[in-house]
Amino acid sequence: MVNDHLSDFVTRIRNGYGAGLVQILVPQTNIILKVGETLVRTGYLESVEKGDKKTKNLKGPVMATIKLKYNKKKPAVMGISRVSKPGARVYTGVKDIPSVWGRLGTNILSTHKGIMSTKEARKLNIGGEIICQVW
Fold it and tell me: What is the rounded CA–CA span in Å between residue 53 and residue 70?
């Protein structure tokens, strides 16, 4: 049983790229779908597809399919890490959003307007909880 679905999601992406996989399966939750869609918008993932009963494990959760993106056989994601954890939440204001990998990467934030990237949060002038960092 997984208690922190986002940490599991980040680890599955990291392991999928490490193994050279084209797609991975993750337990489908609303927050994972939203984070995945944000990663697709920012260009780090190819696509996120909702699962149905056909992709359901035996007595397990419905699984979403994440297609990993490669640029000339190199992973689009060089690194991904979880920042805010259930025991230690990390919040930031719009002026204090940290840069990731010399502004080559991005933060994924959970705000009152939804889950978004650093660029989108700065455009809307809002801060929030830093979920993860991708570079």
Answer: 29
Q: Are 18 and 10 in contact (CB under 8 A)?
A: no
Element (H, E) at 65: strand 63-68
Domain(s) labelled CATH 3.30.1370.30 in the chain stretch across 5-75
Per-residue model confidence as pLDDT tens digits over 5-34 = 999 999 999 999 999 999 999 999 999 999
Q: Which fold has domain 80-134?
A: Dna Ligase; domain 1 (3.30.1490)
Write out the two tokens for 108: 């994924």
Radius of gyration of the chain (CA): 15
Work out the percent of the chain whose per-residue pLDDT is above 70: 94
Distance of alpha carbon 63 from the chain centroid = 16
What is the model's pLDDT at position 56? 56
CB-CB contact of 104 with 135 (8 Å) = yes
Q: Is the pLDDT of residue 59 over 90?
A: no
Which residue intervals of the chain bear CATH 3.30.1490.10?
80-134
Fold of 5-75: Ribosomal Protein S8; Chain: A, domain 1 (3.30.1370)
